[in-house]
UniProtKB/TrEMBL annotation:
Belongs to the PrpE family. One of its GO terms (molecular function) is nickel cation binding. The keyword Chaperone does not apply. The keyword GTP-binding applies. Residues 2-197 form the Calcineurin-like phosphoesterase domain. It catalyses: P(1),P(4)-bis(5'-guanosyl) tetraphosphate + H2O = GMP + GTP + 2 H(+). GO terms for cellular component: cytoplasm. InterPro entries: Ap4A_hydrolase, Bis(5'-nucleosyl)-tetraP_PrpE, Calcineurin-like_PHP, Metallo-depent_PP-like, MPP_PrpE-like, Ser/Thr-sp_prot-phosphatase. It comes from Halobacillus halophilus (strain ATCC 35676 / DSM 2266 / JCM 20832 / KCTC 3685 / LMG 17431 / NBRC 102448 / NCIMB 2269). This is Bis(5'-nucleosyl)-tetraphosphatase PrpE [asymmetrical]. Keywords: GTP-binding, Hydrolase, Nickel, Nucleotide-binding. Asymmetrically hydrolyzes Ap4p to yield AMP and ATP.
Amino acid sequence: MMKIDIIGDVHGCLDELKQLFTKLGYEWKNGLPFHPDGRTPVFVGDITDRGPASVECIRFVCQLVLEEKTALYVPGNHCNKLYRFFLGNPVEETHGLETTADEYRSLSRREQKKVRKQFMTLVEESPLYHVLEEADAVIAHAGIRREDIGKNNKKVKTFVLYGDITGEKLPDGRPVRRDWAQHYDGDLWVVYGHTPVREPRFVHKTVNIDTGCVFGGELTAFRLPEEELVSVPSSMPLVEEKFRY
């Protein structure tokens, strides 16, 4: 049985991420966390934007996933946008991307090149979502329908990155999203983030673990096979209106 620690949306909150690893029982070697029981951390995407240390989060996650190969990652919508920014595509520097872009531009040319290459490789070499049969779980940034597990087309990609969006907008500009988890009837856990919730939200065999660290909530991990939650408090100010439930 694979033992995993799935970590919610980090959004540049590196201090909280390190605290969470320590609380999960990881030991530190050369600045990187390793679990004595061989547990695997899995990042649910959105490791950058809005928080204070997005570039450091890129370096840290890339070391674990690409170099040490001790962790797994799936991209979120913010990761997808940052990837397009690094490609040189015209993307709006809003909704948090501006903080990552500012950090990036303050680096030397050499460091910029390195960070850009690391992050683009991370996204290119990671799947859209992870199906970890031996852990009884699917990790997908905004979730996935049971009938889409195993598929990888444009429609599935939009759902996994953005959730079940209707195309409509709420008065504050946020997209209207359907509550897809209510209809999930699969046997595997679907562990996701994307929409900040005050408490991890369990519906059928799904759990949203984005407890809004960057908005003053918590950074949360869901452990399997234990089905256990571990959280650390955020150091950021609370932005109440960002939480959906």
